Inverse folding.
């Protein structure tokens, strides 16, 4: 099985290529050769990538696949189809399933499902605490031995500082990162949107940004003392970016991620009371959006992760205060990043690829994908000029809770080569 | 668009007409005992005021004067026509048992007067209601007639009788206009 | 002239001209209420539905009186008894009402944005009778009407709103209405109950009542919302009363021509002491009458005739 990708503009942070016109020759599952002109031989499948950017397969390390327990919202199958449609070759999924992924049993089940149903790589993230209750440590060692590469209580914050300390101590021993969902429950006080002018105008219960920042500060200091690796999920405030910067300057082993919606939408979007703006952490002020953009551009925030959180239509069609938090993102991440950031000069293409592929992989302890001979052939082809309207009804995801519905965006994933096969073409996933 | 056709009453003629109506009212009621005058907004009001002044001059006694807004009693509020601005009604006296002289500028379909009758009846029970209008232009759609008419002006459907009053329009005149 | 939209969801979306139109229209409506025959046939044949998810006899009765004074028919959906308890959604309940021939739904709900949501989904008019902490436009309108009746115009007036601002839809609607009509708006209350960035709405926050009361033209006292908290926001009632309560001694700080308003029902002994309710400056009962008048005006403007700019005379 050989595949020749011609005329691609290769972007690869590992080999430091920034839109270099190259052909890529793939045999079986491996990249064999990259060069300005590779000769076509009969028997080769040829894909003309004229005008397209070729990036190493994209990796989304913050995704909710909802299986087991809420297969009505999403499954490993539909979620990975959505990932492939969105140009992602690998995802890491969060443990807030039913039952919670806090030990070998559920992990074993999930790994089986992944084996059978997943169309791209899936890396399960294990819970920090049993049942996500925030009281006792989950079976961290057992899960790590069975292949789990990171732990998180995402969806919930580990409010008990002492428990977080214990978890970090284990994480240090197991040499895996802990992913922190920073949200002090008491400071958040049941709020549903960012505290500011808009929460005041709309009369919605507010969430203070300090709820996020206070936990980040706490966990940074704990991680420093213990020497463990810490990764901050969905960084959303200017204060959080400042803390990350401070932490890195001190040599703390911390990384951070930001979602496409926190990079592009403000709390003003909530003024229609559309629950597709209800997310945790909430959409923030324009100053926060500008700060996270700068943080992403200068590397303080290492990577982009969608926090793909599917919910059924019925659940989202409730009063704003009752609707569940969460937005899907696998199929909109690339077009939103390309359209609103790269396309507008807020993010350089090479840095964007680093944020979408290289860094997420290394945070998870994986060898990052790279377009180089001898590497596994996971390549995402992006058309930077393609303009399309976001149509949630046509998503592979079972759910459609996106704030970008009906937006016209420019810059879409055109194809995904996974293990040497083109598994996605023009938004259609076919294995 | 309205185009001027001809003048029906000039300033002096209007004043003479109002004098005549004043005397007709007095003749009919034998004086102003028990009489009140109520003008229908908008142009019925200054006309009513003038009649009151003339009545008071002749009889040398005060005649109660009131203002009626009939918009909350219109019969076309549920149609997709314009939404009239409603204003205050000011009838600061009891109308029970009184002879009410209702005053309006133009009598046309009769619907405005019908609304005024309903509005008056919600204010009390007059002994009698008489209608005084400056111009009767015909085309009644309801069985309503005026007791005192300034001038009868036969009109076509596409014509408009435009009453100008000094208090509102700066001059006194009644003009016949044409829609084009 | 006329209101631009089919609904009244709040005062924030209205122009000052629209607010004045409602207040002007309320004057003749109030006259109807003071006559022997408290009715006009203006909205005969129209159906008004009261859909109240929160208890409120006061506001619901006021809307019912307003509808009946205009000769409209009224349906009261008692949430506790209807199929809403069985889990029928707000939208389904509203659609049933529309199918029954309702012309306007008056919605009171505990969730902010519910009337906005409903207005988007149904073709009939929706009036927000209070949605969570968000807005209570008819209350603010009747407050504005009451103030305007006494003070002739709102522009330039110094108005102080006292109480739990954070959880108060009455405060928010009043702030919008007063600001749009040119008043100088001040708010006072426990610091834990002052919402973030409230200064960006053009209001000034004060804490020293005794210092500011003498310069006020109007004082609007909010009910201390015990039902809306899941957490106590001030040390004690005693603390609230001594810092923010309009008690006997504080009355002396008010000018003789200062108006005292309260949306009701009053918590006697908390935001105001009983003697205040009897003070000649308190216009609380007038507010109730004005509430019917303002709601009549609103029903007229939303339901009567078309909404085309044409002089009718």
């Amino acid at each position: 099985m050989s595949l020749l990708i011609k005329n691609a503009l290769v972007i690869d942070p590992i080999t430091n290529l920034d839109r270099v016109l190259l052909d890529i020759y793939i045999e079986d599952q491996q990249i064999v050769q990259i060069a300005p002109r590779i000769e076509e031989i009969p028997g080769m499948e040829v894909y003309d990538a004229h005008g397209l950017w070729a990036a190493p397969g994209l990796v989304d390390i913050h995704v909710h696949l909802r299986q087991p327990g809420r297969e009505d919202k999403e499954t490993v199958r539909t979620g990975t189809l959505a990932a492939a449609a969105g140009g992602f070759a690998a995802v890491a999924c969060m443990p807030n399933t039913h039952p919670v992924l806090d030990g070998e049993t559920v992990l074993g089940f999930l790994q089986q499902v992944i084996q059978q149903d997943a169309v791209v790589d899936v890396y399960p993230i294990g819970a920090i605490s049993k049942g996500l209750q925030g009281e006792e440590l989950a079976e961290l060692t057992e899960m790590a031995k069975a292949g789990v590469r990171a732990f998180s209580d995402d969806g919930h914050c580990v409010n008990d500082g002492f428990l977080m300390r214990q978890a970090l101590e284990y994480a240090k021993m197991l040499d895996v990162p802990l992913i922190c969902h920073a949200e002090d429950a008491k400071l958040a006080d049941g709020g549903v949107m960012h505290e500011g002018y808009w929460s005041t105008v709309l009369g919605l219960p507010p969430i203070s940004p300090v709820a996020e920042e206070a936990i980040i500060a706490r966990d940074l200091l704990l991680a420093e003392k213990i020497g463990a690796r810490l990764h901050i999920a969905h960084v959303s405030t200017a204060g959080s970016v400042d803390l990350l910067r401070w932490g890195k300057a001190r040599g703390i082993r911390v990384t951070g991620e930001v979602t496409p919606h926190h990079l592009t939408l403000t709390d003003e979007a909530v003024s229609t009371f559309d629950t597709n703006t209800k997310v945790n952490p909430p959409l923030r002020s324009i100053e926060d959006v500008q700060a996270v953009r700068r943080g992403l551009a200068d590397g303080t925030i290492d990577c982009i992760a969608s926090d793909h959180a599917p919910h059924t239509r019925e659940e989202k069609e409730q009063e704003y205060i009752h609707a569940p938090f969460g937005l899907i993102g696998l199929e909109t991440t690339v077009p939103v990043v390309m359209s609103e950031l790269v396309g507008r000069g807020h993010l350089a293409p090479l840095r964007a690829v680093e944020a979408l592929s290289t860094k997420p992989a290394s945070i998870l302890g994986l060898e990052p994908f790279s377009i180089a001979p001898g590497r596994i052939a996971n390549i995402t082809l992006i058309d930077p000029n393609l303009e399309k309207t976001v149509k949630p009804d046509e998503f592979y995801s079972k759910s459609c809770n996106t704030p970008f519905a009906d937006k016209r965006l420019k810059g879409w994933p055109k194809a995904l080569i996974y293990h040497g096969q083109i598994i996605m073409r023009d938004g259609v996933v076919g294995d | 668009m309205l185009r001027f056709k001809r003048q029906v009453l000039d300033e002096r003629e209007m004043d003479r007409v109002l004098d005549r109506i004043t005397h007709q009212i007095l003749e009919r009621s034998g004086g102003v005992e028990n009489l009140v005058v109520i003008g229908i907004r908008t142009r019925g009001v200054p006309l009513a005021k003038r009649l009151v002044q003339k009545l008071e001059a002749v009889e040398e006694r005060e005649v109660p004067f009131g203002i009626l807004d009939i918009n909350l009693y219109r019969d076309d509020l549920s149609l997709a026509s314009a939404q009239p601005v409603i204003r205050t009604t000011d009838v600061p006296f009891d109308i029970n048992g009184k002879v009410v002289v209702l005053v309006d500028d133009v009598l046309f379909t009769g619907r405005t007067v019908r609304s005024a009758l309903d509005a008056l009846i919600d204010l009390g029970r007059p002994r009698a209601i008489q209608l005084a209008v400056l111009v009767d232009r015909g085309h009644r759609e309801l069985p309503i007639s005026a007791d005192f008419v300034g001038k009868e002006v036969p009109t076509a459907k596409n014509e408009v009788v435009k009453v100008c009053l000094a208090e509102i329009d700066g001059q006194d005149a009644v003009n016949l206009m044409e829609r084009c | 002239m006329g209101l631009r939209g089919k609904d009244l969801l709040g005062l924030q979306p209205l122009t000052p001209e629209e607010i004045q139109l409602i207040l002007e229209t309320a004057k003749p409506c109030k006259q109807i209420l003071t006559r022997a025959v408290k009715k006009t046939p203006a909205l005969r044949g129209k159906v008004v539905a009261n859909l109240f998810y929160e208890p409120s006899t006061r506001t619901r009765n006021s809307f019912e009186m307003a509808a009946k004074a205009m000769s409209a028919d009224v349906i009261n959906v008692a949430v506790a008894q209807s199929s809403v308890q069985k889990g029928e959604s707000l939208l389904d309940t509203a659609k049933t009402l529309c199918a029954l021939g309702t012309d306007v739904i008056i919605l009171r709900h505990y969730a902010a944005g519910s009337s906005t949501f409903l207005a988007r989904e149904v073709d009939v008019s929706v009036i927000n009778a209070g949605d969570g902490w968000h807005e209570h436009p008819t209350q603010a309108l009747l407050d504005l009407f009451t103030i305007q009746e006494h003070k002739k115009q709102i522009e330039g007036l110094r108005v102080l709103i006292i109480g739990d601002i954070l959880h108060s839809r009455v405060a928010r609607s009043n702030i919008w209405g007063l600001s749009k009509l040119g008043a100088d708006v001040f708010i006072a209350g426990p610091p834990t109950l002052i919402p973030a960035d409230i200064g960006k709405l053009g209001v000034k926050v004060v804490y020293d009542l005794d210092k500011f009361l003498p310069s006020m033209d109007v004082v609007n006292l909010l009910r201390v919302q015990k039902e809306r908290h899941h957490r106590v926001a001030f040390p004690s009632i005693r603390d609230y009363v001594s810092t923010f309560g309009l008690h006997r001694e504080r009355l002396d700080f008010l000018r003789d021509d200062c108006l005292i308003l309260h949306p009701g029902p009053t918590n006697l002994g908390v935001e105001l002491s009983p003697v205040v309710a009897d003070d000649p400056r308190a216009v609380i009962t007038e507010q109730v009458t004005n509430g019917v008048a303002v709601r009549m005006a609103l029903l007229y403007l939303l339901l009567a005739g078309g909404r085309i700019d044409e002089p009718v005379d």
Observations:
- Residues 284-303 of chain C form the longest helix (20 residues).
